[in-house]
Amino acid sequence: MSKFTFLVVYVILILGLMVNEIQGQEGMCHRVLGEVGCGIGSCTALCLQILKGMGKCVATDRGLICLCNFRCIS
Length: 74
Fold this sequence. Notes:
This protein is of the alpha+beta class. 47% of the residues lie in helices and 30% in strands.
């Protein structure tokens, strides 16, 4: 009986952790910050200041753009 109870509790905990992980992935948003160039740290600093996210310069066919990844506010 105790093995079955332990197994049920274990499965419930694992499922709870999986739900939290899935929700975390869905909560990410992306925005291109056009008002900043890709100078030394300017993209990262502006993204952190405005959206509290992580900014990175990405090469496209039109040149470098500042892509900001941040947690969506629902």
